[in-house]
Amino acid sequence: MSSVATQAAPVAEGVELTDGFNLLMDALEMNGIKNIYGLLGIPVTEVGRMWQARGNNFYSFRNEQNAGYAASVAGYLTKKPGICVTVSAPGFLNGLTALANATTNCFPMILISGSSEREIVDLMQGDYEEMDQLNIARPFCKASFRVNRPEDIGVAVIRAVRTAVSGRPGGVYLDIPARLFSTTMAALEGEKSLWVPVDPAPAQIPAPSAVKRAADLIKGAKKPLILFGKGAAYAQCDADILSFVEETGIPFTPMSMAKGLVSDLHPQCAAAARSLVLQESDVVILVGARLNWLLAHGKGKTWGSEPKKFVQIDIQANEIDSNVPIAAPLVGDVQSCINALRAELKGFKAPAEWLSGVADKHSGTRAKLAAKLSTATPVMNYHNSLGAIRDVLKNHPDTILVNEGANALDNARMVIDQYLPRKRVDTGTWGVMGIGMGSAAAAAVESGKPVVAICGDSAFGFSGMEYETLTRYNLPVTVIIMNNGGIYRGDEASPDHQISCMLFNPKTRYDQFSIALGGEGVRVTTPEELSKALEASIKSGKTTIIDAIIDPGAGVESGRIGNLNIVSTIGKKKK
User: For the chain, how big is the Rg over CA atoms in Å?
Assistant: First the structure.
């Protein structure tokens, strides 16, 4: 991997020069980028130093994967591509997992990696960290670009930005061979090679005929339902969406990261009546949500015995009919489609008896849940511990909740209300474990608000060392570890020769781990202690771990997706 400075073209003596490092930073700054997430080393170390010298922020992580998760969440929260910088080969591969996850979840992100020189890679001559990164990245992102000349850095960044944020957002890979960083050219010519893209994510207006088709279907519905996905939250047209809900009177239910888009306490919220509304609704309006596995592909007992008619709002036409027939596709951006529907549905109101029945079911389910949340137990369980957390967070609605795990994820999604848009970040479409610390870092950096991360003890282990990243930058993050001592649960019997593969060391002290890494730490065993510790942590703004001890028998295998777990037909697994 050569680092010898080269010159793009002969330049007259005395002419001011620039190089690849500076051109890359100029291009990023012109596109409104202030924060970069990454892990530095050969050949990209100077990227971080020079970026900081310009007065910008570089957040350095302990593993590229977690830096990538941070960049992707930055993209989700800001609608600008989050930037992750890594070294070549192994560092690139670590970042690639996060890039793929960003693309799957439709988060705009750009992964920039240094790489080996093409003339050596293509002949497989054994360069330092030799790898054909450009082609390896292609299946996992929207586009993969390589820059071979400094005068092309500007257009490469513009293409990456436009690709990441336009249409359905996603990940982009930008490959920069090591030699390019130090390659020089005339500064004036370099300046001419940079520009700011005009309207990189233009609105996409739905066809009037498609809007009328969808509106006519909704007008004829006896039991309409709105289902919000995280694409609706990403759109940041919150006022328009609230108006659509209230003008039509249609009950709604959110997917997990759409919670709070319209408050969970809104009278039309049907989240606690989810099974009822999915089964009994006749017309379902999908807003920024896909009929993937999280919605049982739109099929089966989840959706009841009567066939549904779907209105699907999506910016990508080939997502329509991906699993079941879509009666009224609306292809366009969420804001344009919602406002077009509002105009066409003016004066329409959903049948009052349908909303009343849904509201009764919703309030009844919440009442039953409330009883569980307030029930005292010898050792905390998921219900009373999360109930305590919910009551504290109600007083801090601006706090961003990051959530990962199996039972910690499923129960928190059900128990903890969200009141404002984009205040919940979780494992997303793939259910990826390990997003916690990277997501918490980006949420704190990009929002400037307190963050509470609720993690299963298993999930925390995937990115736990990034807790040092949080303390290093003094970020206002409280990490609550739901500690039941194992994967799913901590009471599985062990075989005679070895501890069970599902158990953790019962002597682990996450609170002391926090103190060792420069944060605050407290261990709690009751809901009252948990409430007190969380309130104090949020108010202090200090990076803190709350080690919440819960019943080892709390939890079920695979959370709410146990049906996906494969079990041997020869013998039974121990419980």
Answer: 25
If asked whether residues 132 and 244 sit together in one domain, one would say no
> CATH number of the domain that 84 lies in?
3.40.50.970
Helices (H) and strands (E) in the chain, counts: 22, 19
Per-residue b/e over 94-106, b at no fewer than 16 CB within 10 Å?
bbbbbbbbbbbbb
Q: Which residue has the tokens 């010519």?
A: 189
Task: Name the strands in the sheet holding 400-404, side by side, starting at the edge strand that comes first in the sequence.
Answer: 424-426, 400-404, 451-456, 477-483, 544-549, 520-524
* pTM as predicted: 0.95
Q: What is the pLDDT of residues 240-275, one digit of tens each?
A: 999 999 999 999 999 999 999 999 999 999 999 999
- Residue type for position 463: S
Q: CA dist 190 to 10, 29, 184, 465, 521, Å? A: 14, 15, 9, 40, 50
Residues with pLDDT less than 70, the chain: 1-9, 559-560, 571-575
Same domain, 265 and 149: no
CB atoms within 10 A of CB 10: 6
**Domain annotation covers residue 255:** yes
Position 122 scores a pLDDT of 84
Q: Which domain holds residue 305?
A: 208-361
Q: How many CB atoms lie within 10 A of CB 8?
A: 20
